[in-house]
Each structure stands twice: as C-alpha cells, then as structure tokens.
Amino acid sequence: MTQTVVLSPLTRIEGHLAIHLETEEDSSSGRTIVKKARCEGEMFRGLETILQGRDPLDAQQITQRICGVCPIAHGIASVMAQEMAFGILPTRNGRIAQNLILAAEYLHSHILHFYHLAALDFVDITAILKYNGTDPTLVNLRNWVKNALDKNLAFPGAPFLPRTETDQYLKADEANWRLIESYAKALKIRTLAHEMAAVFGAKLPHSTSLVPTGVTGEVTIERVLSCKSRLEQIKTFIHMVYLPDLFTAASAFPQYWDIGKSQGNFLSYGVFRMEEKTGEAVRNFLPSGAVIGGTYQPLDTSKIREFVEHSRYSSASGLHPWQGAAQPAPLKGYSWIKAPRYDGQVMEVGPAARVMVLCLGPGNPEMKKDVQDALAAAGVSLEKINSVLGRHLARGLEAKWIADQCDRWLDELEIGKPAAADFDLPEQGSGVGLTEAPRGALGHWLTIQNYRIERYQCIVPTTWNCSPRDDRGQPGAVEKALEGTVIQNPAEPIEAGRIVRSFDPCIACAVH
Ligand code: NFE
Fold this sequence. Notes:
Bound molecules: NI-FE active center
Strand order of the largest sheet: 1-2-3-14
Number of strands: 14
Radius of gyration: 22 Å
CATH architecture: Orthogonal Bundle
CATH superfamily: Cytochrome-c3 Hydrogenase, chain B
CATH class: Mainly Alpha
C-alpha cells in the first residue's frame, strides 16, 4: 500500500518548509518505508531584486536581513564581494574582528540548534512537569510545557510539540533530566554568544559595524577583555556540557549513525580568513574544497550552476551565479528554493561537509585527530559523518575548535591600531564573497555599474541542502537523506523530523 505522509509546516526549523513523503508498506516485514521525498520551500522573498540599483555599501546591511540566525555570515560574504569589486583588502585587525563576530554567531547557532531545535526529538521534555525546584528558567520552562500540553499547541506557539509516543525518547531518567537542565543553561549561553558578537559587531542580530576592510569600532583593551570573559563561559559550556550531552544522545540512539544519508558529496568554501586576502584562494581556518565520490578536490566555483526546472522561477535554468536571475513563477515547480549543483552533482553543505573536507583535504592534523578520536569513541568510521548523528557530532566538534581559536584571535588583535581603512567606490566592478555560514557554503556575487548594484546573486547553504529536484531529476540532499527511511508510525513520522532537522534548515535563507 502506498501512502503520502506530509509534515507541514515542519516545526523547530527556521521558515516555512513542507516535507512530502511517498511511502510504501514492505510486503514481507509490514514496515512503512519512504520511497520518495519532496522538500518544498513555501515562501518567496526577493532580496536580490531589492538590491538592484542601490549603493553597493547598502549590500551588507540589506543582505543581513536575509536572516536573523546567520546575518553576520551574509554581512561578511557581502563585504568580501565588495572588497574584490573595489580592489581593496581587509586590515589585519578588521579581518580578526570579523572572524570573532562570525565565530560568536557560529557558537550561538550551533548551541541553538542542538538544544532548542533538535534535542526535543530525543529528550522527553515532559519530565520537566515534575520539577518542584526554584530555578527561574526551569520554572518558566515547566510552565511553558504545561501550557503547551494543556492546550495542545502543536502549532503555532509551542516548540515542545508535536510529541510522539511512537518512538522512545531518552530512557534513562538521569540523562534525560541532565539534557533538560542543559536546555535551560543553553539559553543563557546563547545570550553570552550574542553579547560577545556585539562587542565588535555593535549590535545583534544585524550588525551595524561590518564594512569592507573590517569593522567600524576601535580595538581597545576593554573590548578584548569583554569578549574574553564571555568566551571563557561559552568554552566551559561547550567542553563540560554540550560535548558530553552530544555523546549521551549518540549512545542512546546509535541507529542514527545509519539513518539520514545524503548522496555523500560535500562542499565547503572555507571560512575564517587567516590572511589579509579575499577571493577563492584565501587561506582559511576551516578549509575549502569539494569531496566527490570520497575524493577531495580543490574548490572551483566555475563549476556551480543553479537549476530551476522544479522551482518556481521562469528565469533560464543552469545559470552560473554571475548570470543568475530569480524571476518568480508561482504556478511552476514545487518549491521556491532553486537547485544549485557543483559539476552537475548534488552537494551537501554544512558542518558535516566542513569536517569531510577537512579530513579528506588539507585539514589541520590536530582537528583530524579530534574527529578520529570522537568517531572511535562511538565505534564508527569517517563515512558515518554522513548521517543524523554525524551532522550533530560535526557541529559539536566545530564549536569546540572555533571557541578555542577565538582566544588566539583575541591575543592577535593589535590594541589601538585601525580596524578598517579608507577606500573609493569604483564606477564599475565585480566581486564574489565566499564564506561559510553555520549551515554551510555561502556565496554572494556582485556586479556594479555607474556606482550602483547592477546584479546581486546569493547561493545560500539551505538552497544546497533543501533543493528540489534538478533538471536531470536528481533529488536534493535532504530529499535523498529521507529515501529508504523506515517510519514506525506514519501518523507520527518522528524519524523524518530527526533527519531533516539534522541539516538545521533555514528557509528564509534558502529562498532569500
Ligand atoms: Ni538563515 Fe543561514 C546559515 C546562511 S542557512 S541560517 O547558517 O547563509 O541557508
């Protein structure tokens, strides 16, 4: 028997995403199996069109509005594109300050994802109803959950629902309770991460300080210490709480090392500039590259194309972002997300992709060893990074590396030296900004004519991961990861929720 299972709207992600699953009952085992999945981005935004005709210096402000979760990544991609178009380079202090702001955004985003978006797929949050202590955050949490359950606030209003009784949550009471306490602590740590980002970013979520060549604020000893004190608390949380919680969840649900496999091709543009350069060849803290069929190759952005056969756009299909367009066609296709491909291949982007590129390419040996040790502790091999648990593990390891690296960047800042430089706007020019947002490879392509933006194209992480089928019919990475999944109860398809959330989708970004 075939059946269509729909998750719409999928909760505990950003934006409007519908997941359609075509399932079939296996005649011998009686199990329900996903045969085909469709990922539908359900909204249109048009930020690229809004940018046309504007002052190029508006771009880092406007593109930050693509998202409230990863605005800094958009701001930095934009100033990098401008640096190339203007023929200028970042200052040393400016580059490091930008790294620190983006790093704080990563720490905020990864902790948000693990605890407040994904963990409730594994933790039985109703255990909070028995709480009779006085911690104000836990008391609030208890009241929210009670309210959600009393009113059955499945949507909107409650991140705690829908719940399912089909699949087991964490069985060990003690471990379950520890994760609930961590859920509450993580709220405070996210505040600290945003405060840390605001030290050089001026304000969050949309920073006003990002400019080509660096940041507008001065580098003072007070600012450095202000970052350090917050970083110290965030680091302690990552080492003592986040990583142990991750391993608790992984050891309770080991089957998720084998669930949620994408096509197995990975792409990273590289992130956190380690030298005062811009463009494709810059040396980054987390390296760039592509892994196709298990083999690393250097990044070559001329291989990128965006396809729209199944997307709601009437613009030509298969364009490189230098020629890209986004003419809306609401009655066409099944998603507002385009289908970017690299050398014709479907690529997964994000923490798992960065870890695969790092391990199979020119990664730092100590980081490679961290990955090996973590996988050995779980008793699995590198290929298992391509799974639900692999994505969670990659995020956790990356949070640790980035937090530790922030200390070194803070020590490298030169107190009193400029964090930006003067520059002139050219009458015409073009530039690309390539970076990695927390959710993956992010590129902004900019052309300028008569001192104004002529064309602006973004290809964004969730555009890669949640893409619909392309012109050749190849499913996107999330669509592929859902195929073959066994659903215990089609009325409560928690397995599909766990798979999609492991990619941490952001649909506001994907459609931009
Ligand atoms: Ni709106 Fe984003 C990140 C970017 S994802 S969260 O990370 O760019 O498409």
